[in-house]
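User: Need the bound-state model for flavin-adenine dinucleotide:
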Amino acid sequence: MVDAHRTFVIVGGGLAGAKAAETLRAEGFSGRVILIGDERDHPYERPPLSKGYLAGKEERDSVFAHETAWYAGADVELHLGQPVTAIDREARSVRLGDNTVIHYDRLLLATGAEPRRLDIPGTDLVGVHHLRRLAHADRLRNVLAALGRDNGHLVIAGAGWIGLEVASAARGYGAEVTVVEPEQSPLHQVIGPEVGQIFTDLHREHGVRFHFGARLTEIVGQDGLVLAARTDDGEEHPAHDVLAAIGAAPRSALADAAGLAMADRAHGGGIAVDASLRTSDPHIFAAGDVAAVLHPLLGTRLRVEHWANALNSGPAAARAMLGQEVAYDRVPYFFSDQYDLGLEYSGWAPPGSYDQVVIRGDAGKREFIAFWLKDRKVLAGMNVNVWDVTEHIQRLVRSGRRIDPHALGDPSVPLETLL
Ligand SMILES: Cc1cc2nc3c(=O)[nH]c(=O)nc-3n(C[C@H](O)[C@H](O)[C@H](O)COP(=O)(O)OP(=O)(O)OC[C@H]3O[C@@H](n4cnc5c(N)ncnc54)[C@H](O)[C@@H]3O)c2cc1C
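Assistant: Bound-state model below.
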């Protein structure tokens, strides 16, 4: 029996929200749990949207966080297809798009992020796409299949993770792919130029064209359809469709309007939370892509836009809402799959933060671990087609100890002996 005297409301029906609801019940919370999401689909995982599902290798049903019947079974009240439009912190209530007002004792904001838009002429043409939602992936999947059939051209703005994964899926369908990227290498902000070259080679071998050092300035169309994409160096690239994969912005407007403290833009924006994922209002918490956490391990405010962060911070926030002691200090982690290359990355080492890159293994064969170091301390490690090493890599990152780079780069020295 649900105890109607206590109500925990979760705004955002993504992975963080769904996992928070699951944890509240697993921890024995007996009050009302209300999950409100503006998408019509039940909460789902987004990684397959640019990989298996997009490539036509996974079923649509496989992406959902829980089976539909789970919500009723766990007494989680769902309001789907309903945006929360306002938070009244004084009254402790949220207002929905249909003007329903719901009281909360504790509120979790798990509103995620949204794709950044290209601010150039032509973005209203039919063939211009973004990829965040299942509905976007449904559409893009059909587009890629059609491009493959007709030898059509896809131009992707941005050589980040989503841009590269879509490039891989598109080549799988046989579409012609050009990736336009302002930096000189892919994934620049995450892995820097040293390791970026490996991804340039990988995609070129699979027939992807890169146009580095340039930005899209216009999408040229006729009768509402895309014809070409122009870059700021005066080049025109044939295109039937264009994907804007230029990053995501936190969906924090709701929290901002309610007067909650925000992280500054230099730290990626988002809702500022402490290590227990509590916002500047003690009754309100935030988790997932939207939360900028004061990270106890890294000593900085960090907003992580990755699956594992949604998976783990949703439950951590739920425990904090229940009054448990929480210090969210996970080593940031993500994974990616492109063609026959799979990788996992642990840590945080944007360009400028490291002074050495150590490769352990065979980068030419794409079976290696890359480490980013500062003063011989491991800031991050990425295992490429090498498995079951994440725990060791994370221990190296977590330890903050100085490690001998020669031993680190030598595959005959077991990783676990380096600490
Ligand atoms: C195509 C794609 C591929 C990805 N691949 C990987 C990968 O390979 N590895 C990896 O580590 N990460 C990957 N990610 C990132 C990962 O999916 C995200 O980090 C994760 O989805 C974040 O979960 P979340 O619950 O915080 O936010 P979201 O999943 O964005 O969910 C937030 C939900 O809240 C809803 N919402 C927002 N505002 C409101 C409101 N006011 N009222 C009601 N509802 C609202 C949103 O519509 C959304 O449904 C990928 C992301 C995308 C888009």
